């Protein structure tokens, strides 16, 4: 009996020694890395949509999925049901995405925001191309793995439907990144340091810099309504005054994208040609572009009387030597109304002379009809409406003029040069015509 047991043991040991090890197996017979893990780990098929994503041309998305530590949770998901991935192309990350926002996503402390953003591109069901077309047409809201609902209509265009198809899922290529509101709000809080502030700015009492008394809370303003305070009260005050509150519908809700509109009209000036000096003053020499964008975002409208480069080149050193002179010159060319060539010409034809308020209080700019056009200013310092309606978008109107305007009081105070009479600021009148 004992010899039989020993004989059986030798036979079993000999059989074990003859078995090939996994290292000796050819590559296609070796168990996968996930299959070698313990029984509690998740196994994934090599034909899975996740493997296809990692090997696809959506390299930026695949890299972020790995950095967000989402591979293992997604592997568990595809083992239970199919998934649909809306994959932005690489340009959506490299060119269209704000570099500061991308750095925010890659910071270790913002891992949750990165995971939320990526999971908002994955739907826990299979949506093939025909069903996707129907969902977009019917504006169907799709629930994602981040528990958000996404409606592709108006947010992103599917440019490569059914780009990758696998038994457990499908990948559709989209043109841009889908950013959930929670991630955008988290980014804004981190950028403005509101998350570490002891008292939120909106919780602090507001003091009227003119009366030094607490301001009563402003009444609720419906979206799209005009601002509740004059534009002069909304302008950035001097350094000794407290910042003015944001009035109107723009404020914290951003119903008007003033910054984009100001950038658009400055780009239009550059492409139009002949107004580079004014664009340089607005963007580089002053902060007026930022302030104009804020005012437009808060619901105000502005008409810009834009002197051309020839007129700006004739500005003397005395005009620009004092601190803040450039700002004061531009303020005198900003009218807090929306005026076009037609509206101004009709006004001066009907009333003869019209005085428009400017953002340089208390000065007004005079407009009158002259030779079939609109003439601004008084006396020798005047300018004609030369390039009408360079830019009009309903909130910002840009009218090109051929001279730099100054208030009448400043024109009289200009010192006389030793070599001759006072240097003229405006060019010789070059009259435009009204079509």
TrEMBL record:
<dbReference type="InterPro" id="IPR036378">
    <property type="entry name" value="FAS1_dom_sf"/>
</dbReference>
<keyword id="KW-0732">Signal</keyword>
<dbReference type="InterPro" id="IPR044654">
    <property type="entry name" value="FLA15/16/17/18"/>
</dbReference>
<feature type="domain" description="FAS1">
    <location>
        <begin position="262"/>
        <end position="405"/>
    </location>
</feature>
<keyword id="KW-0677">Repeat</keyword>
<keyword id="KW-0654">Proteoglycan</keyword>
<keyword id="KW-0325">Glycoprotein</keyword>
<dbReference type="GO" id="GO:0005576">
    <property type="term" value="C:extracellular region"/>
</dbReference>
<dbReference type="Pfam" id="PF02469">
    <property type="entry name" value="Fasciclin"/>
</dbReference>
<feature type="signal peptide">
    <location>
        <begin position="1"/>
        <end position="24"/>
    </location>
</feature>
<dbReference type="InterPro" id="IPR000782">
    <property type="entry name" value="FAS1_domain"/>
</dbReference>
<comment type="function">
    <text>May be a cell surface adhesion protein.</text>
</comment>
<feature type="domain" description="FAS1">
    <location>
        <begin position="45"/>
        <end position="178"/>
    </location>
</feature>
<keyword id="KW-0964">Secreted</keyword>
<protein>
    <submittedName>
        <fullName>FASCICLIN-like arabinogalactan protein 17</fullName>
    </submittedName>
</protein>
<comment type="similarity">
    <text>Belongs to the fasciclin-like AGP family.</text>
</comment>
